[in-house]
Design a protein that fits this description.
Helix 2 packs antiparallel against helix 5. The protein has seven helices and 24 strands. The radius of gyration is 22 Å and the shape is globular. Strands 1, 2, 3, 6, 9, 15, 16, 17, 18 and 19 form a ten-stranded mixed sheet that branches. The chain has a six-stranded mixed sheet with strand order 21-20-10-13-23-22. It is 18% helix and 32% strand. The longest helix has 19 residues. It has 399 residues and is of the alpha+beta class.
């Protein structure tokens, strides 16, 4: 139907027709796939959810005299200093080092703060305390450094996130008899609640299930700025079992993302904390999908009723946990699901409201001609996996 060059030409002349993925789904219900495909050029998707496998690359610039940093703390949070002299990596889930804290109340307050909060503060332009210990050499004679840094005073500050944008995920429950604190938040005993993290049918990779439209080099909305898909993500699992509509029945593809944090907005990059588990990062990511064929619209028309996730019991302390089968996102979003005859309340970790806002903001960028689409330089592999194909075993059945 179209080429990427055709669509970008329309964007440059502000003639491109852009719909959010929810608008697309509504239009398909009214006029059908074929007519919708003729009318729209770009479909925008978005999510705002916890993405803990994230972090920031920071180059501080050289001190005078220069220092070769071997240990470093940013607002008390250790940063990895095993690169060049003043290159750091600050992980989103790294916690405050409390070994030097003598006051018990100070230690308690620090437990809910981690690398994600420091990243948020830097993006917001707030000052961050830097403490560093150096390896003294002839070219780097300085032994230590204690100063304040900001987004403006450091050379480079960009996010490099090894695993973001899970293509589907799990629903966590607790069939045991005690409260569990998990990366999905608190799971109450005896199936007291069920928590899911993916926003469902508006989530980016569920609308491009075979990753035919995106790849390495694809330009995206990342944290309120422009970012790119850098590689497949860690734990990339494209061989997950799939429904006839090609959507996976559990965790599948993942992406590594990169973007200039100096352009980002703290509205879309938020440090968060899960009680008795640790810090994580709430991140807004938007992916534009070019309408190159009718098939693109067919995939994007998928509804919450047509996407499922496995209900996993966290009370069993094993890598592969038993499940209670599959539920649709339509069921999850109703607020209750039925497990073994019991009505269980559900809650999302992802913000559906903010996910919609990401897709809308990306749509507005494209309509204003501020964001164009990029041709991937390579595809994300869909034929290999870090785990066996039947990761979730034979316990799952679809009724």
């Amino acid at each position: 139907m179209r080429t990427l060059a055709d669509i970008n030409d329309k964007i440059h002349h502000r003639r491109a027709v852009v719909w959010t993925v929810e608008e697309l789904k509504a239009r398909v219900a009214d006029i059908g796939v074929t007519q919708a495909a003729k009318n729209v050029d770009v479909i925008t998707t978005g999510t705002f959810e916890p993405m803990e496998s994230s972090g920031a690359i920071i180059n501080l610039g050289h001190t005078d005299p220069p220092i070769k940093i071997r240990k470093c703390w940013l607002d008390g949070v250790p940063a990895y200093a095993g690169f060049g002299a003043v290159d750091l990596y600050l992980g989103a889930t790294q916690v405050v080092d409390s070994t030097d804290m003598g006051d018990l109340s100070e230690i308690e307050e620090s437990r809910e703060r981690g690398g994600s909060h420091v990243i948020e503060d830097l993006i917001a332009g707030k000052p961050v305390q830097l403490r560093a210990i150096g390896q003294m050499t002839d070219c780097y004679p300085r032994a230590s450094c204690d100063t304040t840094i900001t987004r403006e005073t450091i050379n480079q500050f960009y996010l490099y996130n090894p695993r973001n944008l899970y293509q589907n995920f799990i629903v966590g429950v607790n069939g045991g008899d005690r409260l569990l604190y998990t990366y999905l938040g608190p799971l109450h005993p005896r199936l007291g609640n069920a928590v899911y993290s993916n926003p469902g049918a508006i989530s980016p990779l569920l609308n491009d299930p075979e990753l035919k439209l995106i790849g390495i080099g694809t330009q995206i909305f990342l944290g309120g700025g422009i970012g790119y898909i850098a590689w497949e993500g860690t734990q990339h699992f494209p061989l997950q079992k799939r429904l006839p509509n090609h959507t996976p029945i559990g965790p599948a593809a993942t992406l590594a993302l990169i973007g200039d944090a100096k352009q980002m907005n703290p509205k879309w990059v938020r440090g968060c904390y899960f009680k008795n588990y640790g810090p994580s990062l709430m991140l807004g990511v938007g992916v534009p999908l070019p309408v190159l064929s009718e098939e693109v619209v067919q995939h994007c028309a998928v509804s919450d009723q047509d996407i499922v996730a496995p209900v996993v019991d966290f009370s069993i302390p094993r890598r592969v946990r038993p499940t209670f089968g599959l539920v649709s996102y339509a069921q999850l979003k109703q607020g209750r699901i039925t497990i073994d005859g019991n009505s269980v309340r559900t809650a999302p970790l992802a913000s559906v409201f903010r996910s919609r806002q990401v897709a809308l903001e990306l749509k507005q960028w494209i309509e204003r001609g501020e964001f164009t689409l990029t041709e991937p330089v390579a595809s994300i592999p869909m034929d290999r996996s870090f785990l066996p194909q039947d990761r979730w075993g034979s316990q799952l059945s679809i009724e």
